């Protein structure tokens, strides 16, 4: 017996529609063509699949058995076809990313490098100039993803969790705080705080640590590059708060000390903000998967070095 998917679809349609005429319309066939198809299938099977003297048309025992096969197989085939269509439709697109964390360049660039190899037809860009107004830009359609640790409820925007991180204070190894083993907000009152050039409200050291305690550092110095900030800190020219995954390669640096914020430390979560309708894009699922695994790879790599 030579059974084809069209046979299973025809059998299911006749059963669901209760007759040849309506089934033929659903299948975009003539009633005559559908009738000939079923007759040819019955000839191959050597049994009748329908009880033709009943109204509405009913399946025979053999027909019911074949229908159960159709009901098992066709949903799997249709799900696979839908997935293939989605992948094909999603092959081309746009992924413009804005960041509300300056240090995320170190983590995001390897993610996007892997992504562009898998999705060469997707227009890829990082829009760092929109960092201060990234979420409104996402809502307006100017960017397609925002990396943020401060989710704001906005219509049409959904937040996908990426990974957790611990903000750490990094000081020179000779700094008095190194012996204390942790940092309290008041410890920074006499310090030069080195930060990235970002809005104060988007910096964990202010929003989560100093501002709630009503503490201001003695001075604030903005530095673009992590490597330069670490050199300044090692020279005793300031302190900074950075994520643990950024500082992990410095764990064995004898010139630096890494301290948790507060006795118990602090834990924060990084999110990818997307427009809700874009969650269905196949390439969005892929970039989110990469974004969640790259920090783990970086930390493991640092530990094994």
From TrEMBL:
Residues 3-60 form the HTH lysR-type domain. It is found in: Cytoplasm. The keyword Transcription regulation applies. The keyword Amino-acid biosynthesis applies. GO terms for cellular component: cytosol. One of its GO terms (molecular function) is DNA binding. Keywords: Amino-acid biosynthesis, Cytoplasm, DNA-binding, Methionine biosynthesis, Transcription, Transcription regulation. SUPFAM superfamilies: Periplasmic binding protein-like II, Winged helix' DNA-binding domain. It comes from the Bacteria. One of its GO terms (biological process) is methionine biosynthetic process. It holds the Pfam family LysR_substrate. Belongs to the LysR transcriptional regulatory family. This is HTH-type transcriptional regulator MetR. It comes from Paracoccus halophilus. The lineage of its organism: Bacteria, Pseudomonadati, Pseudomonadota, Alphaproteobacteria, Rhodobacterales.
